[in-house]
Amino acid sequence: MPSFRTGLVTSVVSERPGFQRVEVDGEPAYVLVDLTGPVAEGDRVVVNTTAVELGLGTGGSHVVHWNLERAGWRRPGAGNLLKLRYTSVQADVGAWTEQDQGPVAGRDDVPVLPDLSGLVVVVATLHSLLAPVTAAVGAQTKGAKGAKGAKVAWVMDDTAALPCALSDLATALRAAGLVHLTVSCGQAFGGDREAVSVPDGLVAAAAAGADLAVVAPGPGLAGTASSVGFGAVAAAGHADAAAALGASTALAVRASRHDPRARHRGVSHHTATVLALAARTHVVPVPEGPVGRELAQLLGDVAPHEVVPVPTPDLRAVVGGEPLAVRSMGRPLAGDDLALGAAAAAGAWAGTLASA
Predict the structure, then answer these.
(1) Highest mean pLDDT among 222-231, 238-247, 334-343
(2) Three-class SS of residue 222?
(3) First-last CA distance in the chain
(4) Does the residue 85 lie in any domain?
(5) CB of 241 closer than 8 Å to CB of 199
(6) What CATH number does residue 11 fall under?
(7) Is there a contact between 332 and 98 (Cβ–Cβ < 8 Å)?
(8) For strand 255-256 and strand 266-267, is the pairing parallel, antiparallel, or unpaired?
(9) Is 271 inside a domain boundary?
(10) Residue 273 domain-assigned?
(11) Which range marks the domain in which residue 15 is found?
């Protein structure tokens, strides 16, 4: 159950659209501005302290629930789509089809299933994998797609963090020109486009001109030791739906050489579960060379899926430096050749198709 207390905003540390990092009584906290409005130093606020009390990592900050200096807060919505439904912070975000005038907006004669045959889709089970996947896409497509490379959309599902604005990584990737569009799906909110579901989010990405979509959760994925007890098990359904709509699909392998948990060393049991649950055939890219051969051996027989060796750019320098210094489960991603190689192979595979 949640825990709350009141406190004083002692510092506003940083701000970006929809998000503030602050300190409340000297302790880290953040504000989801679109839900509660901004705060200022000296404001008295109510904070949710649950994550700190549980000792969580990604979500281990207080969350400002209400600013006691404000008698009310109203930001007019963009349409008729409520997210965070039936909670005290439910918000009208507006579906992308309520604003977009593309091929499916406002029409009564749309096909039962949209055609996404021109879209390339990579499905990943960790937020941190966005960095090497999109960096590899950028390395693969610049020149072939012009100076900026392929147009990449992050299609954010609702299996981890719900606020898109919470992602420092997405902010860095946008600044680096590696992610060009964000689509928040289901109960996730705050993307450039708001979608009702992941398939709807893929259609939104395609309608906005994306060449490639990476379906991945936000930060803070929940997981247990159970084979199916993790949020990203939904990746199997995301990949199958994308394939059913005609997209070219690949599943990014989650792997690690250094994870202290046996179930995540080598190829993670998360990847094994998703591959087992996915009913359609998907590409499983691995890098060419020794790391790829090791991953292929660890993967074993993944029928009906196809393990495909891919020429992969060396991303150690890219991902290890700013603004893409990224950590996965508390460890630097650039120091793990299995993790980096598998994710970069997925991006290189997708970039090659998007450049064709």
Answers:
(1) 238-247
(2) coil
(3) 51
(4) no
(5) yes
(6) 2.40.50
(7) no
(8) antiparallel
(9) yes
(10) yes
(11) 4-67
